[in-house]
Specification:
The chain has 262 residues and is an alpha/beta fold. The protein folds into two domains: 114 residues, Rossmann fold (3-Layer(aba) Sandwich), CATH 3.40.50; 97 residues, 3-Layer(aba) Sandwich (Rossmann fold), CATH 3.40.50.1000. Helix content is 33%, strand content 21%. A hairpin with a 2-residue loop joins strand 2 and strand 3. Helix 5 packs across helix 6. It is globular and about 60 Å long. Bound molecules: magnesium ion. The site of magnesium ion has 8 residues, from loops.
Amino acid sequence: MTKKRYRGILADVDGTIVRGSTFIPGARETYDRFRDRGIRWIFLSNNATIPATLLAKRIKNLGLNVTEDQVLNSAVALIRSLNKERPDARVYTVGEPAFVNAMKDAGVVVVEDSEQVDIVVAAMDRSFSYDKLARAQAAIHAGAAFWASNLDPSLPIEDGFLPGAGSIIAAIETAAGHPPDRVFGKPSPDMAFIALEQLGLPVEECLVVGDRMTTDILFARNAGIDSALVLTGATSREDLPRYSYAPDYVLDSIADIRVLFE
Ligand SMILES: [Mg+2]
C-alpha cells in the first residue's frame, strides 16, 4: 500500500464515527490521537434539518471535542452558494424552521408567494404538505430554478428510519416535471470545496472517510479526493463489486486509518 502524507480528514458521521448515539469502537480515541498529531478533521453531514452549529454541539455532546468550523452540512453549502451566486434571488423554501431561519439569518430573501420566485429550495421538512408541493410546482412551472439540499431517501434515527429529504424532493420533481437543477449534499462535491477551504489544505493532502459508496465514496471521487470506505455502516465487502468505482482503501473501521498514516 502506498503511503501518502495526509494532513486532513473529511469524515462522515453516521455509520463512520457513531451508530445512533454510540461511538464506533475506537473512533473517539482515533479522533483524539490524530488531532493531537496535527491532523485536521472536518465532519460532513447531508442533514439540513439543523444548523451546522447545532450539529457541532451534538457531536460535542457525544464526547468529541470539535469546534463549530469543523462541521459542515448541505444547508451550509446551499446557503453559501445562494449568497455567492444569486444574492438577490427571491427564494421559496420547502424546509424546516431551523433551515428557513438559517437562510434568513444569512440574508436570503425568503418569499411565500409562488408567483415571484426565482429559486425553489427544497430540503427535509417534517411539515411537508400538499399546499407546499403545489406552491413549489407553480413556481417551477413559472420559471423558478429548483435547488435541493440532498437526495438521501431516508433519515436514520435511534431505532430505525424516517423518510428523508430525497423522498420530499422526489415528490416535487414529479410535480415539476424535472429533477433539481442543483443538489448540494454528498455525492455532489460542493461541501468538499468548502471543507478544503476551511481546512486550508490542498486536495492531495486530504482523505474522505465514510461508510456509503453512493454518497461518501462517490463524493470523494467527484471532488478528486482520496477515499477510505469503512465497513461499520451501510456497506459490506461483498457489496463492492456491484459498483463501477472503488474507494482507494477499504478499512474494517475508522480505528484502522492509522495504517494509512504510519
Ligand atoms: Mg454514513
